[in-house]
């Protein structure tokens, strides 16, 4: 079986701290699997996502993402890997305020060389139109500067940017937090439909447990992260 994520004896400790923030003995995500990850603030989920994206580097253990050993890559190599292989949707939208919504979505196409990526000059293609329409992004909205968009609109643009190049692994951190029920359901349907079509794996973080049933598996950070459990025991004792 091929794994999108393969972790073994992984640990991460922030500088000037004695106790690891994250300790994961074993965790695997199969290629094409959709995982719902939940956990309260401070459970280590943000640290885990940053490790999976190559933003942080583990102190110990093995972390393989899409058959790439991230701990063995340079910072530049990890940046390139993230741009080419991952679709990342964080709570912070990271849109360029002086660009239009359409231009922000197109940015995702410039940073990948995947053969199936759609080039920016063909942004009127069926794929672009299907993606943006499914997210409720009409032409008028696409032509607006990102700085003028509402929070919910900015989040939908960020989603489109992450999905436009059909990534092999989608990492989403609370992506529906600013969406109303209609757009939330539309986003979930689009995300899972796109991932199934391209056999992409999904790691989806949310506090909204009502969404968990749409995913293949569910995992709680408090169970996954042994470091968090050890910290709680230490605090109690």
Question: What features would you describe in this structure?
Answer:
The chain is α/β, with parallel strands linked by helices. The chain has one domain: 3-Layer(aba) Sandwich (Rossmann fold). The chain is 37% helix and 21% strand. The strands form two sheets. A five-stranded parallel sheet has the order 6-7-8-3-9, sandwiched between helices. The protein has a four-stranded antiparallel sheet with strand order 2-1-4-5. Helix 3 packs parallel to helix 6 (151-163). It comes from Paraglaciecola polaris LMG 21857. GO terms for molecular function: ATP binding; ATP hydrolysis activity; transmembrane transporter activity. This is Lipoprotein-releasing system ATP-binding protein LolD.
Give the CA-CA distance, first to last residue: 42 Å
Mean pLDDT across the residues is 86
Strand content: 15-25%
Give the SSE string: EEEHEEHEHHHHEHEEHH
CATH superfamily: P-loop containing nucleotide triphosphate hydrolases
Determine and state the CATH class. Answer: Alpha Beta
Q: What is the global morphology?
A: globular
Number of strands: 9
Which structural class do you get from the secondary structure elements?
alpha/beta
Strand order of the largest sheet: 6-7-8-3-9
How many helix segments? Answer: 9
What is the CATH topology descriptor?
A: Rossmann fold
Tell me roughly what share of residues is in helical segments.
25-40%
The second-level CATH architecture is 3-Layer(aba) Sandwich
Number of structural domains: 1
Low-confidence stretches: 113-117, 228-237
Characterize the biggest β-sheet: 5 strands, parallel
């Amino acid at each position: 079986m091929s794994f999108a994520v393969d972790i073994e004896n992984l640990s991460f400790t922030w500088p000037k701290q004695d106790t690891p923030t994250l300790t994961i003995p074993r965790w695997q995500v199969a290629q094409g699997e959709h995982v719902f990850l939940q956990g309260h603030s401070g459970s280590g989920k943000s640290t885990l996502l940053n490790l999976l994206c190559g933003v942080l580097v583990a102190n110990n253990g093995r972390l393989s993402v899409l058959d790439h050993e991230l701990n063995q890559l340079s910072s530049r190599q990890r940046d390139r890997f993230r741009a080419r292989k991952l679709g990342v949707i964080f709570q912070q939208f990271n849109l360029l305020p002086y660009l239009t919504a359409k231009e922000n979505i197109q940015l995702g196409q410039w940073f990948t060389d995947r053969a199936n990526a759609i080039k920016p000059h063909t942004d009127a293609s069926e794929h672009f139109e299907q993606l943006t329409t499914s997210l409720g992004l009409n032409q008028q909205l696409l032509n607006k500067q990102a700085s003028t968009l509402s929070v919910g609109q900015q989040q939908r643009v960020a989603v489109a940017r992450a999905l436009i190049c059909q990534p092999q692994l989608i990492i989403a951190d609370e992506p529906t937090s600013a969406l109303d029920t209609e757009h939330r359901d539309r986003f979930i349907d689009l995300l899972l439909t796109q991932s199934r079509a391209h056999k992409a794996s999904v790691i989806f973080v949310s506090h909204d447990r009502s969404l968990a049933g749409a995913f293949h598996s569910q995992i709680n950070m408090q169970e996954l992260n042994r470091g968090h459990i050890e910290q709680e025991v230490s605090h109690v004792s």
